[in-house]
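Progress against Task 2.4 (sequence-to-structure conversion) is shown through the following example record, which the project officer requested during the mid-term review.
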Amino acid sequence: MYAARKIVPLSNKHSLQWVQNYTTRTKIPIANLSKGAKGSAILATNVMRSFFDNGLIDDARALFDEMPERDVVMWTAMIAGYTSCNQYVHAWTVFCEMVNNWENPNAFTLSNVLKACKSLQCLARGGLVHGMAIKLGLEGSLYVDNALMDMYATCCISMEDACSIFRDMKEKNMVTWTTLITGYTHRGDGYGGLQVFREMLLDEAELNPHSFSIAIRACAAIGSNTFGRQIQAAVIKNGLGSNLPVMNSMLDMYCRCGFLSEANAYFYEMSEKNLITWNTLLAGYERLGSKEALNIFSQMESEGFRPNCFTFTSITAACANLAVLNCGQQVHGGIICRGLQGNLVLANALIDMYAKCGSIADSRKIFREMSDRNLVSWTSMMIGYGAHGYGKEAVKLFDEMVVSGIRPDRIVFMAVLSACSHAGLIDEGLRCFESMSNYNVTPDQEIYGCVVDLLGRGGRVEEAYQLIKGMPFKPNESVWGALLGACKAHKLPRMGKLAALKVLDLRPNKVGAYVMLSNIYAAEGKWGESARMRKLMRRTGSRKEAGRSWIEVRNQVYSFVVGDKVGSHTEWAHGVVELLILHMKEAGYIPDLHCLIHDLEDGT
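Structure tokens generated for the chain above:
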């Protein structure tokens, strides 16, 4: 068969005539193209594939529609082309047309349409294709079985159906094993994925880099550095220690397990690096909130690597975590210079970054300028409004989002409730809470915790307690903790004692609850009970986590921890505090020290 030459894009008209002219002009003997079939059909199929490879989907469809006769190869090429271009609905539509035209699909047809079903997350359609495979006697095909297993692993709520296909397969290859490992790993079941990988080794199945990469991903999913090292030894034993995708997976495993020093050492030992390598290390430092992420980004650029959307997403998140506005603005400039400002994920990251860095006006500007918004965009803006105390704006934005046709989820309701709580908008918050059923969102522990906090901050503590009593499930520590905070703020020792005991019953090492109880008993003059609470607190071995604050001054980030006495910046901070105390005294402010009784014992 003669290979098709480089094709000039068509004008979507007279495509078939063009193909026929092409065969005449190039003097390709039709007999050489296909015995007993029209040569133009085979050439048209090759041209169609070329169109899909170059993203010319409309041209491929125009050529397909003009063909007077279509065989199974052409139908399959059309379905495969749509699937490769992420046009899964069109792929399914063509498959239905094929069946309605009484053209029996082959194994390659079914494997491609199953990929479309998987990507559409449509189990019902996948089940129909499975039934057709059985009817046509294609269930034993390796291509079909692998595609069926992949579809069931992705679309089902469990791995049972995928495992059933796997067990019934008479023939397995490395794709079969890797597909099953991937199915377990992608749903967060790293142990299941590693068990399949172990069976793969015992079966002496052929291993490839992807098999090891996905097994390493399984180790990362369960946070097991130990299993990861064992697989690394197997990688070296199989001569894949220098394979770049495998090395990148190992680096990702170290990062996700929290072993940044090991990840850093492994990174510098790598014989080869690409942009994925740098992005992996950068994301690792960003997840742990380390300012080293900024240095990694600078080093990456200095070595000639051009950052992409994934790079900018991680570095923007790092700037947000560190609240370094100046660095965030520079990153934003880099995004604009590379023409990536229209990227939806990056725009969402910038909204979050500016909000966390204190510039809610910039967050709002980016949000309003977005041509396309998704649920994350609206949620990020609501969270930003809430953090800055703009509760009314958050509620207004929630109403705008609903009108725009986007359905709120659990996180959206948490953002709105938190915003209302901090702004004292109790009635608005309760209205949002009561509307959750309209969107098929069921309140969970965190939602109830937000509503308890909302009522508690507004002084409606008894109402918050009644809400807890009416919960459809047993309240957890965070719900009782919200009530405890409200009791402390409004000086309600009786209910505070109840809430503190509930918290300690659920989480015995909760330091704040011991401190609260001790203070309540001390205020009541029950010094013995107060001392007993302190003694129990010391026995737990826990300490109240010290608060940390940081501020950016002249491109330098300074952090402060309660009790810091070393460093020039702490001296400046103490000087500012003394000045504030002086102004407070001049204003006649009298501090309420009641809640600080005996807090010196726990070092906070």
